[in-house]
Write a structure and sequence with these properties.
By secondary structure, the chain is an all-alpha fold. The protein has one domain. It is built from 20 helices and 2 strands. Strands 1-2 form a two-stranded antiparallel ribbon. It is globular and about 60 Å long. The N terminus is likely disordered.
């Protein structure tokens, strides 16, 4: 029996390595092995997005769909099928649709990320197994940022990104990992993945993600410290905090080494009149413009837009001269239709309410996710981002079910005694 388990684990590790490798391929390799290509070239926006669906991604999808029924992933396949039906209806009623636009990239990105998440959430995996997988996944993103940095593949504007990704979503994955690992995970917090996630955010220059994590830790510092002490990380966290603070201060004073774009952006924001700095900041003004423009698009298209990056970029360029709404929630109200998007939002709120009732740290992570979805982000352009969100939500749901079952079991045992 032991030999069978070892063989399964070895095979599973090989599958995971393949999944992580394929999801991290640079565009050059994906282009050479592409079965489908799409570009937003021709739309009057600053950045052109090129998408390549690689032949190498097909095994990930097939394995993920095969594992789906034996996986603890949230039953998201129903939503995916509903999205297909909705977009076919757009085509049948001669509305703007993905078929006419030949724009299938969002469907392909979503099914790839969803399939990868289904593989990770295999029912054979314990909570500890999933935690270990996500720890290594986070370390891998840091390695990919370093490779990108050394090779010169990113960093022209002082902001670095993992290979095959943008700096914003690279930082977002790291930020979600940190809040999840500090408050929602069942097992011990691992210091090395935490360090790599923090450095990743700093190198990306994403002040929103950096400030969001810091604010969450400060707001729930009691629970944060309690978990770190329980995990026997108290001394390590104290040492890292002191060392990190000293290093950051020295770098800001001497202005030497790697340009800390995120730190300089944060310090610029908090110097002088903070409220005035925020309300006159280009990022804030851009987000405000995208909110107003997105509402106008939704009024013109109450049923939503096709599930297409080309469609949302085209409409955003027309309405507010930006690539897309700078909010995950606004983006998916348009891309998934208000009915489907609100349904998914209510599902997350349901998990939040349940976690609050059970007094579990999952509530902090899901609350963080909801706030970030509303105030930050964009349409998800990478399968790895879907993987991260779907794994953490699925993990949260499974953990709450475990906690609830244990509470009922203890109650029944006490009642019998």
């Amino acid at each position: 029996m032991k030999l069978v388990i070892e063989k399964r684990k070895l095979g599973y590790i090989c599958v995971l390595l393949y999944v992580f490798l394929v999801l991290s391929l640079p565009d050059g390799i994906k282009n050479m092995t592409a079965l489908y290509k799409m570009t937003t070239r021709g739309i009057n926006v600053t950045y052109t997005y090129n998408y390549y669906f690689s032949l190498l991604e097909i095994p990930v999808i097939l394995i993920g769909l095969y594992k789906y029924r034996c996986s603890n992933i949230v039953k998201f396949l129903k939503i995916y099928i509903l999205l297909i039906v909705l977009n076919v209806a757009y085509w049948l009623f001669n509305l703007d649709n993905v078929i006419t636009l030949n724009s299938y990239e969002m469907f392909l990105i979503l099914i790839t990320g969803f399939s990868a998440a289904a593989i990770i959430m295999d029912k054979e995996n314990s909570f500890e197994d999933i935690e270990t997988i996500m720890d290594w996944f986070t370390i891998l993103q840091f390695v990919l940022v370093m490779v990108s940095m050394v090779s010169g593949a990113s960093g022209a504007n002082g902001r670095y990104a993992a290979i095959g990704m943008g700096s914003g979503q690279t930082a977002n994955i790291a930020a979600h990992y940190l809040v999840w690992t500090f408050f929602a995970r069942k097992g011990k917090t691992r210091v090395i993945p935490v360090l790599t996630a923090l450095v990743t955010i700093v190198l990306t220059g994403s002040r929103t993600n950096l400030l969001a994590v810091l604010l969450i830790v400060v707001a729930f510092v009691g629970r944060f410290l309690k978990k770190q002490i329980e995990d026997e990380n108290g001394k390590k966290i104290l040492l890292l905090t002191v060392t990190g603070t000293v290093v950051i201060i020295l770098m800001l004073i001497t202005n030497k080494g790697i340009k800390m774009e995120s730190l300089s952006r944060v310090t610029d924001l908090i110097q002088g009149n903070v409220l005035q700095n925020i309300t006159t900041d280009d990022s804030y003004l851009g987000r405000l413009r995208s909110v107003e423009g997105s509402i106008r698009i939704l009024k013109k298209n109450p049923h939503g837009l096709p599930f297409s990056l080309y469609a949302i970029e085209r409409e955003s360029a027309r309405e507010f001269s930006m690539e897309y709404p700078h909010s995950v929630l606004l983006s998916y109200l348009l891309l998934w239709s208000p009915v489907i998007a609100v349904g998914c939002l209510l599902y997350l709120i349901k998990i939040l309410v349940k976690s609050i009732k059970l007094h579990d740290g999952v509530a902090i992570y899901i609350g963080f996710m909801l706030v970030m979805f509303a105030l930050y982000g964009a349409p998800i352009l990478y399968a790895k981002t879907y993987l991260t969100f779907l794994v953490f939500v699925s993990y949260a749901k499974a953990k709450l079910n475990y906690v609830e079952e244990n509470q009922v079991e203890r109650f029944e045992r006490g009642y019998e005694e």
